[in-house]
Amino acid sequence: MGVFSEDVLDFFSPSNAAANFFILAGLLYAIGFCFYRLGTEGPAAAREEDGPGPNALATGGVYLLKPATFPLFLGSSVYTFEGIGLVLPLLSTTSPSLRPYYKDVMSSTVYGLLVVYICIGSVGYVAFGDEVSPAITSSLPQRDVFTIAVELGFCLALLFTYPIMLFPVIGIVESKLLGPSSSNAEETTSVKPGGETREMMWKSNAVRTGIVVFTALASIGLEGSLDNLVALVGALCSLPLSFIYPSLFHSEIIGTHRKRNNWIAGLGVVMMIGSTFFAIVTWQNSDSDTCKKEHY
User: Fold this and answer.
1) What is the distance between the alpha carbons of residues 31 and 137, in angstroms, rounded to a whole number?
2) Radius of gyration in angstroms for the set of CA atoms belonging to the chain, rounded to a whole number
């Protein structure tokens, strides 16, 4: 069995269920507060004295398009679907009798997520305007017991879902550094002559520990640049996975719609270069104290 065996996925089922509960509870509280603020104070953009700004498309005091930050939006919006990397691994562990329905379930899930993202993002932006923080919890009333509970719930949700989201990375990195058989080294407790299995196990542990430490240090060091970081990751990693590679693979494997695939891949390259450049050149504009500001 590979890294994505059914036993492994079953092992993470309880923690993923708990994470989903914490995320749902936090989203409901955030949306509820946004509607409360809209009901008491009205749209945030309508309260701003400076107006919509130059070259911005606005109606009723609400921004519909801001060209100055649109490249960041491209990378960030694609990044929201970064879980697409789990589609094929989950398909490989799906029961053969259920695989004919997998495509429909996946499509329905993606469309449902799109609706949820648009609704939550729109409500939050209309309620807070440009003063909204990249992390919505930083815009909620600070020192409020419900806000603290939501932040704690989101932290637990990240902790619970981190292992399974890291599995694709672990499988790829270990296969490159330690060889294809490294991902299966922990599946046996016996030690081969010369201690090769035990040695491989500790090498795998070292690689995984290094990945965790790296992500922890990166999150600490880049805490004030969340919007630019998300846009950069979305541009460099998610855009190729979403537009470029699938189109090129379809042309090579299936051999049809080559012209359409080339257009999509070309658009992906342009978006990747533009979003990456903008995320880097605007990096210095990030406020490192954003997450430390108190509201209300």
Assistant:
1) 11
2) 22
Residues 11-27: tens digit of each pLDDT: 777 888 899 899 899 98
Please classify residue 292 by burial: count the beta carbons closer than 10 Å to its beta carbon, then call 0-12 exposed, 13-18 middle and 19+ buried: exposed
Contact 107, 81 (CB under 8 A): no
Q: Tell me the one-letter amino acid at 182.
A: S
Residue 161 CA to residue 86 CA, distance in Å, equals 13
Q: Which tokens belong to 178? A: 């330690």
User: Would you say 126 and 38 are in contact if contact means Cβ atoms under 8 Å apart?
Assistant: yes
Q: H-type helices in the chain, by residue range?
A: 6-11, 13-41, 44-47, 70-79, 87-93, 102-128, 145-177, 196-221, 226-233, 239, 245-253, 258-281
Q: 69-126: per-residue pLDDT in tens? A: 777 777 778 877 766 667 776 787 788 888 889 989 988 988 998 898 888 888 888 8
